Amino acid sequence: MIEGPIRPAVWKLAWPTMLQNVIGGLQGLVDHAMVGHYVGYTGNAAIGVSWQIFLVVVVFISSLFTGMGVLVARFAGAGQPDKVNQAVYQAFLTAAVLSLLILAPLGYILAPVLLDLVNAAPAVQVEALPYLRVMFLFSLGMMTFYLAGGAFRSAGDAQTPLRLGILLTVLNIVLNIVLIRGFGPIPAFGTTGAAMGTVIAGGVVSAIVIGLLLSGNQVLTWDRAMSWAPDWEIIRALFRFGLPTGFQGVAMNIGGVVLLAFIGSLAQSAEAQAAYAVGYVQLFSLVTWTSVGLMGASAAMAGQNLGAGLPDRASQAVAAASRIGLGVAAVIGAMFLLIPRALLGAFGMEEPVVVDLGVELLRFLAVSGLFITVALSYTGGLQGTGDTKSPMYISIISQLIVPIAICSVFQLTRGLRPTDIWLAIVVGHVLRCTLSVVRFRQEKWRSITVELGGSRA
């Protein structure tokens, strides 16, 4: 990662993560496809709405893993494995406390209020409420999986997260086939079965993750000699680097929730929410899955090379990642334009109004994909070097303020239409791309340092 040709190094780190995200994303596709066929488009809308709400909270907690990634990459690049392992353990300890003692009880109690906030149609709320409560109560398994992915990638091992992701997806698909439609003595749980499959699979994989960390034969190791007590210096560092990413994620997902509220105000709200859930949340993930993989590769490459005193190589790695992303986004965008009805049909979307709205949305997303993939590559570069505040400000402006302003203006002037919301999404992605590239090229990140326990990287 800190020597040799740059593009192959980026690709070697990125492709397992990209493949993992694509394979892992299949669980969402399976959820939507099965629920669409066995429950109907209200089930699709329920999953889309629930995930948008769930991510607002989960992204904030998982921001600790961004802080962890900064520390792991820096100390790995500086050759300090003990501090790498401590950073991973402290991130797990903190996430476990937040998930079990805060997220689970509050999420269960506030779920009905949150569904009201997004103007979910009554039929959608019936399907969404139990789904959302299951996800809130049993989130720790998925959190541990996300932690493992970020930790191993930041340490330079992208293969282990890939294997874990494949296992998670296979388990989830099998469980969903059984729990959504029912099998033998097991009843059909419908939409709730999709949530049950997700959390059970996450719990199994999280147990495997902890076993790997304790085994002593991985690039990351928890051993008896390490301190098991909370290390407040590391925890503060996790929050210092991670909280801006948390606020960034919350801002982005609040923006998504507000967009759902705008969609809920349309005359055909349930149909539009279903089109949004499948078109944006699922199909557009074909772009974001690969782009998030490139973001992780950019962060790891930038962080390790900066830790090794090679800032020019860090900059070149981020640019290489963005070029790879553009190629992938162009191919997926062409699919959105050429075969939109076939893509939507895979999710059981047959109602003419829903299909027409979905086709319309995919046309806008074909353009958005080109910009979001570049934005995420440069976001990874900023976060990996320790500049986690700039992406936060950029996201608040581009994913929250600007889209909401656009929708509000149309709503107050001539009445809101679905195309106005789709346009707001595209404008937000274009702005995020522009600001991310400009900020990274200012190169303020070159002077960022990490200090723990008297050591510096």
Tell me briefly what this model is.
The protein has 457 residues and is an all-alpha fold. Helices cover 82% and strands 1% of the residues.
Can you characterise this structure?
The protein is an all-alpha fold and 457 residues long. It has one domain (7-445). Helices cover 82% and strands 1% of the residues. The protein has 15 helices and 2 strands. It has helices at 6-38, 41-77, 81-117, 122-137, 140-154, 159-181, 191-215, 232-264, 269-283, 285-307, 311-338, 340-345, 352-384, 389-413, 418-441; strands at residues 451-452, 455-456. A two-stranded antiparallel ribbon has the order 1-2. Strand 1 (451-452) and strand 2 (455-456) form a beta hairpin. Helix 3 packs across helix 5. The radius of gyration is 21 Å and the shape is globular. The two termini are 16 Å apart. The mean pLDDT is 84.
Task: Spell out the key features of this protein.
15 helices, mainly alpha, two-stranded antiparallel ribbon, 2 strands, 457 residues
In terms of topology, how is this protein built?
Blueprint: H1 6-38, H2 41-77, H3 81-117, H4 122-137, H5 140-154, H6 159-181, H7 191-215, H8 232-264, H9 269-283, H10 285-307, H11 311-338, H12 340-345, H13 352-384, H14 389-413, H15 418-441, E1 451-452, E2 455-456
Helix pairs in contact: 1-2, 1-6, 1-10, 1-11, 2-3, 2-4, 2-5, 2-8, 2-9, 2-10, 3-4, 3-5, 3-8, 4-7, 5-6, 5-7, 6-7, 8-14, 9-13, 10-11, 10-13, 11-13, 13-15, 14-15
